[in-house]
Specification:
54% of the residues lie in helices and 15% in strands. It is α/β, with parallel strands linked by helices. The protein has one domain: Rossmann fold. Strands 2-3-1-4-5 form a five-stranded parallel beta sheet, sandwiched between helices. Residues 11, 13-20, 36, 78, 80-81, 112, 152, 155-157, 160 line the site of adenosine-5'-triphosphate.
Length: 169
């Protein structure tokens, strides 16, 4: 049987998966894996360079392959915001851990993210896609894969990490 000792964080870009993830790992006495850094390591390129070179669909293929190959145990795994576009990867992550959706409102997304173009976000329908379009497109996908949902609007990183820890313990 697969080891389900991992906590896998999903959610909108800027929801705090990376920032909160490491705090959560300390609270839960787990290791920490940032999937974005695995993608960079395995491609030897920055995320933005991969997106620029391969386009959104190409980046999603690379992300799918890297996430599907994760074999971590007893870790908090922070995914990138676009992980939910890869069904194979999400199924693998559900087999090796509990999927926790860090939910934020559209207003929080807007405040956290700033400029979409600067942030290196995957815009599947091209650069004309607004932040609102992105939120509406992704929200049902995060909900589809979530096993536990934790709203982290208006919480500090530490308070949000404690709330997630209580939800999973
Ligand atoms: N609870 C919070 N309160 C205030 N700011 C936050 C909070 N969580 C994250 N931030 C800030 O939002 C920004 C994005 O956070 P972070 O990089 O952790 O997001 P992410 O979910 O990992 O995004 P991505 O999907 O792009 O990897 C950072 O500047 C971070 O400091
Ligand atoms: O939400 C997104 O589209 C992304 C978020 C980042 O974490 C990276 O995975 C990448 O820049 C794409
Ligand atoms: Mg991150």
């Amino acid at each position: 049987m697969a080891d389900k000792s991992n906590i896998v964080l999903i959610g909108m870009p800027g929801a705090g998966k990376s920032t909160l993830g490491i705090v959560l790992a300390k609270i839960l006495n787990k290791d920490f894996v940032d999937a974005d850094l695995l993608i960079q390591n395995q491609s030897d390129k920055t995320l933005q360079k991969i997106i620029d070179a391969l386009g959104p669909e190409g980046f999603i293929e690379v992300e799918n392959a890297v996430l599907s190959g994760i074999s971590a145990t007893n870790s908090v795994i922070s995914t990138g915001g676009s992980a939910i576009y890869s069904d194979e990867a999400m199924k693998h992550l559900a087999e090796i851990g509990t999927i926790v959706y860090l939910q934020i409102s559209y207003d929080s997304l807007k405040t956290r993210l700033g400029d979409l173009q600067e942030r290196g976000v995957v815009l599947k329908n091209g650069v004309s896609m607004s932040l609102h379009d992105l939120y509406d497109e992704r929200k049902p996908l995060y909900e589809k894969y979530a096993q536990i949902t934790v709203n982290v609007d208006d919480l500090t990183i530490t308070a949000a990490a404690r709330k997630v820890a209580s939800a999973v313990e």
